[in-house]
Amino acid sequence: MAKTVKPTSTRSSTVITPDGPQMQCTNTEVTTHKDITYSSPTANGKKVDLKLDLQVPQTAGKKPLVVYITGGGFVMADKSANLGERTYVADQGYAVASIEYRTETTGSTYKDGVADVKSAIRYLRAHADEYGIDTNKVAVWGQSAGGYLAAMAGATNGNKQFDTGDNLDQSSDVQAVVDEFGAGDLAKIADDCDAATKATYMAPGSFINAYVFGPGSTKTVAADPAANKAADPATYLGSSSAPFILLQGSDDHIISPSQSLILLDALKAKGVEATRYVVKGADHGDMSFLGDVEAGVPWSTQKVMGTISGFLDRKLGS
Fold it and tell me: Using an 8 Å Cβ cutoff, are 20 and 301 in contact?
């Protein structure tokens, strides 16, 4: 975590003051399918079974699908994370899948992570009848590292570069992207932070550089503009890219708040529908793993979660 962070600009953005009640579910019954293997790629030369958990509300008709991508600093991907927020979205009428994906701890890079997200989308489309999913209405929703992968998935609609594995007869395109405090231009990920933090993030072998170049590499995104560009969601934006909302804490101490503004500008420059929301006073989501049990509170307010569900309703229609 950075010791200091520059104040973020709210230019072209909507500010949310995260006061008021916490999100509340209704009495919608939700069925959970756990540990579904959606892909079995290789990592470190060995086959690994990637799993997802799927929540399906027991309401009439086929359900729009939201694929949730957890954070974890590119070193972990715990699909059990943020159960409360996922259940809230399922309660609104969406089938919600939370997925595992390959990380740098298995010798994997962002290319593998993006491929895994797309594999999960294709798998769920292929099994849509089994789970009652509407294949024409699919969104990705990620937080932190998951926000980065969600942005990559939505930016690359129609681009087959990251489509590998099974169910290649199915589309991996999505109709909406929810990106919460995700990274984008990795060479600038710590630009708002104090000098020591920036040096740590940009050092050879850091979690950022390892996820781009692989373990053991001494290359850095700061010294390799071409590699940084290839890993940047903005590079792939075009007329086929999905609409975005970007949600950013004004007091984020892990990823520079300006990351979402850089991506917003790129989205608008390419004519992609996008809105940036700055959550006043909020840090980097749920950071109870770092001992901060209060950091997640703003993100689970009705104001913030209602912003997400409202966007999904407009783009997918629950």
Answer: yes
Confidence of residue 317 (pLDDT cuts 50, 70, 90): confident
- CA 211 vs CA 18, 51, 112: distances in Å: 33, 21, 10
- Reduced to 3 states, what is the DSSP secondary structure of residue 263? helix
- Average pLDDT on 197-202 reads 97
Query: Three-class SS of residue 225?
Result: helix
Residues 6+ apart with CB under 8 A from 78: 70, 72, 100
Q: What is the pLDDT of residues 56-80, one digit of tens each?
A: 999 999 999 999 999 999 999 999 9
What is the spatial distance between Cα 153 and Cα 239, in angstroms, rounded to a whole number?
14
Average pLDDT, integer, range 29-55: 97
Q: Which two tokens stand for residue 229?
A: 């560009």
Please check whether residue 244 is in contact with residue 12, taking contact to mean a CB–CB distance below 8 angstroms. Answer: no
Distance CA 206, CA 101 (A): 19
